[in-house]
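Page 37, continued from 36.
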C-alpha cells in the first residue's frame, strides 16, 4: 500500500525566501528578524554593544554567529557567541558610494586573506543586495511588490537564497553586515 506522506526528490531544489522585519510582537527595539513564508521566525539579530557586536541567533535563541566591526569598516565574524574567538570569515568593504556598496568576503580561520570567496554588491537605498560565489548568484534581496500599486515602499523586502548553497546563517549574517547602519524602516 502506498504511503500517504508526500514524496520529496533529493535533486528537486527550490529557492528559500526569508522576510526581513523589525516589527514583531515581543521583539526588542532595533533587532531584526528573518521569517519564512509562513511567518515562522528562522533567525534573529541582537544588536548588542559595539564591543560584543551583533549576534545572529536561530529560532531557539542559540547564538550562531557574532559579527564585530573594526574601526577600518571591516568585519570579523566568529562562531557562536564570540567568546571562543573562533574566526569563521572576514568581510572587507571595497566600494562605498551613495548608489553602490561592494564587499569582499574571505572564509577561513585566523589567516583569511588571499583569494575572495564571495562578493557582495548592491544599493542599500533600494534594498538590493546580491551575493556571488564566483560567477553564480548565491542569494539576493528584493523589494516586496504588490500588484496594482504604482509605487513600491522600501519598508518590506525579502531575502532569496538560491538552490545549491545550504549555509543560510552565513548568508543572513552577510545581509546584516550589508545593511549595517542603514535605517531600515520596516
Amino acid at each position: 500500500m502506498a504511503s500517504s506522506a508526500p514524496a520529496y526528490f533529493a535533486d528537486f531544489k527550490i529557492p528559500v525566501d526569508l522576510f526581513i522585519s523589525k516589527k514583531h510582537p515581543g521583539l526588542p527595539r532595533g533587532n531584526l528578524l528573518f521569517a519564512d513564508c509562513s511567518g515562522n521566525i528562522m533567525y534573529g539579530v541582537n544588536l548588542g554593544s559595539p564591543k560584543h557586536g551583533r549576534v545572529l541567533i536561530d529560532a531557539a535563541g542559540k547564538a550562531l554567529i557574532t559579527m564585530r566591526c573594526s574601526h577600518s569598516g571591516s568585519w570579523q565574524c566568529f562562531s557562536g557567541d564570540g567568546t571562543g574567538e573562533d574566526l569563521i570569515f572576514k568581510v572587507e568593504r571595497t566600494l562605498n558610494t551613495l548608489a553602490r556598496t561592494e564587499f569582499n568576503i574571505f572564509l577561513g580561520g585566523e589567516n583569511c586573506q588571499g583569494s575572495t570567496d564571495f562578493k557582495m554588491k548592491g544599493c542599500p537605498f533600494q534594498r538590493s543586495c546580491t551575493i556571488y560565489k564566483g560567477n553564480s548568484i548565491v542569494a539576493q534581496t528584493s523589494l516586496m511588490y504588490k500588484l496594482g500599486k504604482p509605487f513600491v515602499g522600501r519598508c518590506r523586502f525579502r531575502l532569496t537564497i538560491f538552490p545549491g548553497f545550504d549555509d543560510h546563517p552565513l548568508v543572513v549574517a552577510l545581509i546584516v553586515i550589508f545593511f549595517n547602519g542603514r535605517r531600515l524602516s520596516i
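The chain has a mean pLDDT of 80. Flag for discussion at group meeting. The longest strand covers residues 87-96.
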